């Protein structure tokens, strides 16, 4: 409202301030000016009494007075100096008037300026100083006998008819000035002038109340000619003036002196009348009345305040118009007088007790009053704290404990500890139902805002038992509606509400549980997902105590089991699935949400149980107790159903088991079993050290589960949630019996390796048992074979025999480890994450004894591909003629796929299932790209398959093993014989069968990649546990072939990255490497030769009519660099193994021949792309290779035709010279001997270099640098004469011409 004109009050105050600034040095008019004053008075009386005219007249009079004072000062320069006092703010005040002529003390009127300052301390000090001076003036005035002279001479601006006849002129002026000041909007004038008026009226009793009340009305009169802002300033000025009078205590003193005083009634009526004028005056006017009520006794309230004119009518009409201030005044008056009065009947029922006030009917009548309290937003109306104090007395918090909370969370209206608690809960429930939900939340945004503010006000006194009442269905739905849209007007309000709610929870687990349950119960477990915030997740992460976890689990159980936990509001989803149906296809059962809101909520309950443990940091014993509670819930709700009723009391378990009244859907049962599997797998990972053999049972969650399962299974009134076939039932019983047997055996073994093996086998049996329940009919055969393996491994004699067991007793019985490996592989493809964890644990403890056949069977999986071997024979002939390397390189292959990079592997296995669908950490494969890649595979069916063979005989430790690998690779499309008991190929055959159906091709491809990733995890475990075994070479060669093969690694970027990480971390960069006599040199030679060939392979693109995109070219080049890097790292690793083998020089001749061939190709063929830096690094790490090849390299370097290769070869020669020539004196003779033996070759090389200098300047510089280095070595070894002797005259001239001073110096030294 800056465009509005300033009010008359503010203008007047500003003018007065200017007058004060001038009159600070002015002496109060003396008696000589009596005539003039009288004349002024007469003129004033003739004027209109309108405020604006009075203001203009005062302004004119002040101007005349100012001129008169100035002229008087000029005429009397020798007047005594004015006294100076310190200002309120601590600075020197301007000189003020002295009234010595009248005998009154000085009054410094500049104090009014300080009353308007923003600093509260300055205002307070100014008010105190003003009152102190005025008290002195008044006391002096009262002691004077002749007051007429002072009244005439020192009136300042006071008029005779203002009613303040007993006050000194300065006091009268101050009162008028203060009353006008409270209507000023300048800075903090209202506050400062009201403070001064309060202290002044309370200190000087000569100021009569009737005169003061009349003066307030006269000076702050509101007329019809005033504009809106002007009238508002006057009304606010009245309000502050009346507030000053109420706080001064004068009315209380007046009543104490005269019980029949009319001023209390008059004052109350005036305030009620003022409150009725404008809405913004209501609350402050009532606040002024409340200040007065606090100071008055009960008798004064009954006889004066309640009898005030207009109060009864004001109360009567409050409910219709919606007057929250009338309700506030009634509550405060009733609290003070403690007596029921008819005046309150419309607002407060008689008798006045909380149960009457908070009945639904009465709250409905008060709803208008409470809704209209939004007019003072964003501040909360003063009525609400008063109302909440009545609603939530302090005693509620004292009687609350966790037991009452549990019952109240279950149902609000039952099991209260005492009648007062029940009454408080009932009152609070009615309040929330009628006011919060029925009136505020169903109305405008402002009232919704008010509802959140009121609930936040109630939090400090709110018992946890009342949280379900606060977090009702309507409130939670309102929160979700607001928070689901960030542009919502109430978004920050709802955010703040949740923030304050979380702060109120703090570390109190009872509150935490109540809030989590309240939010999730009415959002069907989807509060975080709908609001897109992490409120519930953060709250659940805050559990730190065992008691808090137990309380949460108990409430989750109640939420799952009790029918009343479903949302009390009608749901728009009423259809449910057939709860009695068995688990069928994945498409029918994957979405638990199809069963409606109830199943959504139950799904959240099941998923939340394990999330408790995620951030929980407890000791092992406490954590185990929490795990047991979770296990019992999952086992009861997931595995069993009651035959009769919904409750079963177990004396053996010492607890009552409950189920929902409605049969749990099979999808929920399946989820419970999956969570149970995950719980067991996590407990197996996090098991603490088992210090004592007899302590195994204490922290063995698997043993506790099997005991619990057996106990429940034996109850006649409880049955499994699904009926099993005879085969599955038999498998279930045999798995249970085998686990018991292994458990006994484990306890007998104590602390040993066998005990660990038994332990991991037990957990695998438990996981398999649960898998039988999840997917009946699929695991019977695998379970039977696993049981046989357990029996053979540990000679368990008390296991019931199974069909087909005797078949293993023949001569052709496969080895135990082969059967175990095959069984584990057969379980891998369709296993869940917990099942896979159990398989990996078993493999970790048994992989030391794995046979070569078992290892090759695993590696065979990595070679599987959808590329058909249509041209096997032709490819074999080509491979034999070209001696194709084991890595199966297809030279003209255009790489199609995303760009790959070297990513480090972590110790933990990645989630293969996530990797396949494209959400893995290493790389995300786009579905479109996947289909495109698959389409290209289909189009290339006629291309040659590289992974069907390729020299696998060189990969194994022996030739026989390599032959087996080759044979295994050839039958990629054929299944194994049934008698071989290797169902892994059955699974692979099914995948290939699915591949023939184009509609299922992508799914089959994903399954194969998933299977390979899981096998890779086992291979990684094997490499970690057996880094020094010769079989590492077999694993390395097969994995390298899989990585290099475009049809295998490129099918999935994740698969390629996984293979790369295993090769780098577990093989090439491992601390240990294959050692011992079993490591054959022929195998190492073959691997070395083929890796060097791979490092020499040029980058080629497939010839195509269509130019490949830049993205494909970049991906192709990146992959080529990764393959080259793998070949180089592999070469270094193989040479390290060869060095460790301590082979004789004759045995290493083949290695040298391989390097000679590489150097020949490097120097003579453009097709060789091997890097000179790579060769230099080989000579640097393995100097013996360079030493043996030194002469050969000198000879070939001089005869090479390519200038570029010749110059690069000089670096290789220089690198060898570094290791040949020793700087020590002890090695000088050996170095001299070696150099002598190669001196002729060196001379010939230098002769060729200087006579055929390169054309490019940079290459010429390299040649001169090399020759200078050689000449320096010759000079240091004193071989100058021999060197020069081998050079003919032409060479001498060429050396002098090209090498210049370097060669001349060499000749000088020789002379």
Q: What does the radius of gyration come to?
A: 50 Å
Separate helix tally:
63
Percentage of residues in helical conformation:
55-70%
Characterize the overall form.
Answer: elongated
Mean pLDDT: 77
Strand content: under 5%
Q: Biggest sheet, in brief?
A: 2 strands, antiparallel
Query: Strands of the biggest beta sheet: in what spatial order?
Result: 1-4
The structural class is: mainly alpha
Q: Please provide the count of β strands.
A: 4
Span of the ends, CA to CA: 109 Å
What ranges have pLDDT less than 50 throughout 5 or more consecutive residues? 1-49, 72-101, 152-158, 396-406, 408-417, 567-595, 689-697, 803-812, 869-982
Subcellular location: Nucleus
Biased composition (Acidic residues): 935-945, 967-978
Biased composition (Basic and acidic residues): 41-54, 922-934
InterPro entries: ARM-type_fold (IPR016024), DNA_pol_V/MYBBP1A (IPR007015)
Describe the structure.
- The structure is a single chain.
- It contains 63 helices and four strands.
- It has 1311 residues and is mainly alpha-helical.
- The strands form two sheets. Strands 1-4 form a two-stranded antiparallel ribbon. A two-stranded antiparallel ribbon has the order 2-3.
- Strand 2 (647-650) and strand 3 form a beta hairpin.
- The longest helix has 31 residues, at 1110-1140.
- It is elongated and about 145 Å long.
- Keywords: Nucleus.
- Belongs to the MYBBP1A family.
- One of its GO terms (molecular function) is DNA binding.
Structure summarized in a few sentences:
The protein is an all-alpha fold. The N and C termini lie far apart (109 Å).
